[in-house]
Design brief:
CATH class of one domain: Alpha Beta
Shape: globular
Largest sheet: 6 strands, mixed
Strand content: 25-35%
Helix content: 25-40%
Bound molecules: adenosine-5'-triphosphate, magnesium ion
Low-confidence stretches: none
Distance between the termini: 36 Å
Mean pLDDT: 94
Amino acid sequence: MSIFLKVSGLEFAYGEVTVLRGLDLEIEEATIACVMGRNGVGKTTFLRNVVGLEQPSAGSVFMTDHELTRKDAHERAAMGIGYVPQGRQIFPLLTVEENLSVALEAVQNGVREIPQEVFETFPVLDQMRKRKGGDLSGGQQQQLAIARALVTQPKILVLDEPTEGIQPNVITQIGEIIKKLVDEKGMTILLVEQYVDFVRKYGTSFQVMNRGRFVAKGEVAELDESMVKKHLSI
Ligand SMILES: Nc1ncnc2c1ncn2[C@@H]1O[C@H](COP(=O)(O)OP(=O)(O)OP(=O)(O)O)[C@@H](O)[C@H]1O
Ligand SMILES: [Mg+2]
């Protein structure tokens, strides 16, 4: 197994307020790495530093042997990073098809058409191509947000709380899709998730964040009740 993404000593502050305090993370290729932690500890900020929407004040980010640290989000997307932000952030007034096309335009990596397999992965989006994003259910919007990240055929998919506010049956669908991307395409996944059952079912490794630090980590099989109680329960 080889390391696909490597973060070392990552620090970040919003102005004077330090949010990330020296984060190290290694993700093996074709595995699902899960970052957990209570509200406001810095999970989203960490992902934004990984995908290039924020620039760290110290530390580095490598994808295999390519250094990403000083590259912006567009460059990282073109190099193979797909991002599904928290809260989905699709365009409500654009149709499903237009939402997907916008992603193609934004990421100049040679993929020019929405790959048919995106619609095969999400049949519901195929049926709703002409529907406005804002008229979809929450679960459908989350699928659209994932599909939008997949149209450019990324090597690593970064997802911020994909199960937040979503019905159980769609949560299972999303979990199965992510698993399939790993098993069949060798994709690597980094996801932030507060839903412990989802991590247990689909995750490979986990990290628990607290106040900008990773305070526990391991293989998902080692994620026991005492750890959940100590670090995650409210
Ligand atoms: N744009 C911003 N400017 C200033 N402070 C911010 C900004 N975004 C987030 N913060 C602060 O940084 C800290 C970490 O926020 P972040 O959104 O990364 O946490 P999180 O773990 O993703 O939380 P949640 O579980 O609620 O999504 C919080 O104290 C938050 O208030
Ligand atoms: Mg967040």
